[in-house]
Amino acid sequence: MRIALALIAALALTAPAVAADGVGPKLKVTRLDQLPTPLPKPYNDKLTAKQVDAMVDAAFARARKNGKNVIIDLGGNWCVWCRELAAAMDLPEAKPFIAANFEVVSVNTSSTNGKLDDRNVQILKRFDVKKIDGVPWLIVADADGKVLASSSDVTDKQHETPQLMINWIAAYTPKGGAAAKGRHQ
After folding, report:
1. Using CA atoms, how far apart are residues 158 and 156, in angstroms rounded to an integer?
2. Residue 83 and residue 87: Cα distance in Å, rounded?
């Protein structure tokens, strides 16, 4: 019995945390300037359109198998906001939560600061994104491909801290995902 209780306590400490109201795990980093540096460069600009399509297809297959939603992160490595979002998602408190609830695919859609959507346009068409007005642009979809959100709101004026970015993402935690199954602190 003690071993079972110890195991339950250990799982509670390592499991992703999220409240029922869509608030993500509590982050220790409170400001963007506190994110670890150098900031990650999440977008691989060497992939062909066919390789990107295969990555997205694989993410949806894993999501269906594991009861997760999919985040397609559109942007470019020149974008500081894109890199800050990637760093926030990679924080020790956020990373297990993201991994438990989402399959994430970073897709380079931008070759330069002035061009937000001149690469991998097949992904934009696939998810009916007419125009990207800012990056990062996140498409959040359920495992069957139904788009739940498609916008750059994750880093807008209301989401300019790592915590608020993760909270924005947490709002799209799948029903029946890690949070709904009670695997949170």
Report:
1. 5
2. 6
Q: Which of 136, 155, 164 is nearest to 29 (CA)?
A: 164
CA pair distance 123, 107, nearest whole angstrom:
8
Cα–Cα distance for residue pair 98/103, rounded to 1 Å: 8
Model confidence at 177: pLDDT above 60: no
Taking residues 78-87, report their average pLDDT: 96
| Element of type H or E holding 163 | helix 162-170
Q: Which of 83-87, 93-97, 107-111 has the lowest mean pLDDT?
A: 107-111
Of the candidates 88, 107, 85, the residue with the CA atom closest to the CA atom of residue 154: 85
| Domain boundaries, given as residue ranges, for the chain | 2-170
**Tell me, what's the pLDDT at 117?**
87
Residue with tokens 């002035």: 114
Q: How far apart are CA 37 and CA 109, in angstroms?
A: 24
**Omega within 30 of 0 (cis) for the link into 25:** no
Name the amino acid, one letter, at 13. L
The SS3 call for residue 107 is strand
Q: Is residue 47 within 8 Å of residue 53, measured between CB atoms? A: no
Q: Rounded to an integer, what distance in angstroms lies between the CA atom of residue 26 and that of residue 95?
A: 12
pTM, entire model: 0.84
**What percentage of the chain has pLDDT greater than the value 70?**
82
CATH topology of domain 2-170: Glutaredoxin (3.40.30)
